[in-house]
From TrEMBL:
SUPFAM superfamilies: NTF2-like
Organism: Spirosoma flavum
Positions of the SnoaL-like domain: 15-113
Protein name: Nuclear transport factor 2 family protein
Pfam families assigned to the protein according to its UniProt record, in alphabetical order: SnoaL_2
Length: 118
């Protein structure tokens, strides 16, 4: 694993751990005001919009929900995860995220999931 991949992997592990703990403060440490999260509902830019996005996500996937990591791949400054989750609120048989890093911050993040609301 080269230096870029090691740093990308470190940021992804931090992000995934913070997400699993529904720790918004820790998640936001991975982003900047210039960061963008691209969703099926359109792009979100800046910490306020990204914060609201994750706050909404935590409703569907609260801490303690079943979560399966199907794939985690890192190449240079790009990371990809495929996952599934199940909670009292929603079943998500497939979700994907792609992260493009600049240094130790997520510059662009794409996210999509197939969600079945219970």
């Amino acid at each position: 694993m080269n230096t870029n991949e090691a740093l990308t992997n470190e940021v992804l592990i931090h992000h995934l751990t913070a997400f699993g703990n529904n720790d918004l403060e820790e998640i936001l440490k991975d982003y900047t005001e210039e960061s963008q999260v691209w969703t099926p509902n359109g792009p979100l830019k800046g910490l306020a919009a990204i914060s609201q996005f994750f706050a909404d996500y935590f409703v569907a996937i609260p801490t303690g929900s079943a979560f399966t990591m199907k794939q985690l791949t890192v190449s240079h400054h790009v990371g990809y995860v495929a996952w599934a989750s199940d909670s009292a609120i929603a079943q998500i048989p497939m979700g994907t995220d792609t992260f493009f890093l600049e240094g130790d911050k997520i510059k662009f993040h794409t996210v999509a999931d197939y969600r079945i609301t219970k």
